[in-house]
Design a protein that fits this description.
Blueprint lengths: L1 H5 L1 H10 L6 H29 L4 H28 L2 H24 L5 H29 L2 H33 L1 H13 L1 H14 L21 H8 L1 H27 L5 H25 L1 H8 L1 H21 L3 H25 L6 H33 L4 H26 L8
Length: 431
């Protein structure tokens, strides 16, 4: 240990981000893991979204609805795998499976004349993957690090997602024409295989460096067991998990409100001007979330506690929506969108994932996907229709809709405080 403490890299990381010497290998490996994972996703996302321009709004709406039901079915099948698969192989097998599916899409698409059905299937499957891959990643992280470590390290690890969000899109941006969109599927497939040895390495570090072998009662070589569909039962029967689900549901509501408000305000600009605004927001979001995640979030958790940390962004959004109601200017909405997204990546998401360090392994790997995917997609659908009803049905303007959104954000903050206090209970009880 003294040798590790004398390492200049370890000294810098501890000073900048509160990483202890014995946590450096695991933290950097987890950071690299999510960088590669999100880079692969951001290669696939523009391939998916480019397809949507060939379809009508009604067709895309039906695909969104289909995505919700398929996501629910995939979560159920994953529950069966969690119950019967050796835990040591569960996470790497999941990423290997998705890599294989994208290879299959490449082969079928390359040999097919009429690609309409294939493209729509690919569109839905990438949408399923978009939430599933990151949900499983954070399940694995909450099984790797203990509660105290999560408070210091999860924001640093989450910053890797922003790095992946910068690296991934650059590949299709510069090489989509020369490589072709189908070949991008193969590149993403290969990238999904790279984290597999990292997963095994992290499993070893859990005992040797992190000293967390006793976090879960199950041995790494055994299946978690239990009811394959226990995730749904656990979610609906546990108030703590229902609270997390409500928190995510309200987050999707705010996401929809801010997104639609911004979309409507940008309607008068040309397509080139809109593209520039969205690109500048992406740059600001990734820069802000990287800096905040690496150097601030862990300290916010340590100094102010989980209730303040998890409610911080909802409170800022509530205030921002009130400002929009008073002064509905595009600059204000753009600023709010940047704060919402950067705050989610750097503060809200890692804080939310810390909540799962207080539950057992079965809950992490069975109930968490139900919350992250089924509840999220359901909230997406319902809140989008709610916004449409307020604007097109009731004819409410931007200011009135912003007031409704502020109310949702206030409730979001209250739920966050409730979850933060529950998380900090000394007895660890969740019922």
């Amino acid at each position: 240990m003294p040798e590790s403490n004398s390492n200049p890299v370890s000294k810098f990381l501890k000073a900048a981000s509160q990483i202890e010497a014995n946590e450096v290998k695991a933290t950097l490996s987890a950071f690299l893991f999510v960088v590669i994972l999100m880079s692969a996703y951001y290669i696939l996302r523009p391939v998916r979204d480019a397809m949507a321009s060939d379809w009508t709004d009604a067709e895309v709406s039906w695909l969104w609805t289909l995505n919700f039901f398929i996501s629910t079915a995939v979560v159920a099948v994953y529950g069966i795998a969690v119950s019967r698969f050796r835990f040591q192989l569960l996470v790497p097998a999941m990423y290997g499976f998705f890599a294989l599916t994208f290879v299959v899409f490449y082969v079928v698409a390359s040999s097919s004349g009429d690609r309409t059905l294939i493209d729509k299937s690919f569109y839905v499957w990438v949408s399923v993957f978009s939430l599933f891959h990151i949900s499983v990643f954070w399940s694995f992280m909450s099984d790797l690090f203990n509660k105290e470590q999560a408070g210091r390290l999860f924001s640093i690890i989450a910053a890797g997602a922003s790095v992946g969000g910068l690296i991934g899109p650059s590949i299709p941006s510069f090489f989509s024409e020369s490589l072709g969109t189908d070949n991008l599927m193969l590149i993403a497939s290969v990238m999904l295989l790279i984290p597999i040895p990292i997963i095994f390495y992290l499993q070893a570090l859990k005992s040797t460096d992190l000293h967390n072998a006793d976090l879960s009662p199950n041995t790494a070589g055994a299946a978690i067991g239990g009811n394959p569909f226990a995730g749904f039962k656990l979610f609906f029967s546990n108030p703590y998990l229902l609270g997390i689900g409500l928190f995510i549901f309200l987050y999707t509501g705010i996401s929809s409100f801010v997104y639609f408000e911004l979309k409507n305000l940008l309607a008068d600009l040309s397509r080139a001007e809109r593209t520039a605004v969205w690109a500048q927001m992406d740059l600001a979001v990734n820069t802000l979330s990287l800096a905040t995640g690496l150097f601030a979030t862990g300290r916010i958790v340590s100094k102010f506690g989980m209730p303040v940390t998890i409610a911080l962004v909802p409170v800022l959004i509530c205030v921002g929506l009130i400002v929009i109601a008073i002064s509905p200017l595009m600059a204000v909405v753009v600023g709010l969108q940047i704060i919402r997204r950067a705050g989610n990546y750097a503060v809200t998401r890692p804080a939310r994932e810390m909540l799962f360090t207080r539950v057992d392994r079965e809950t992490r790997f069975k109930a968490k996907p139900v919350i992250d995917i089924v509840a999220y997609r359901g909230g997406d659908t319902l809140m989008a229709w709610l916004f449409t009803g307020l604007t097109q049905g009731l004819g409410l303007g931007l200011a009135a809709v912003a007031i409704v959104g502020a109310g949702i954000a206030a409730l979001w903050a209250i739920v966050g405080i409730y979850l933060g206090r529950w998380f900090e209970r000394e007895d660890g009880s969740l019922d």
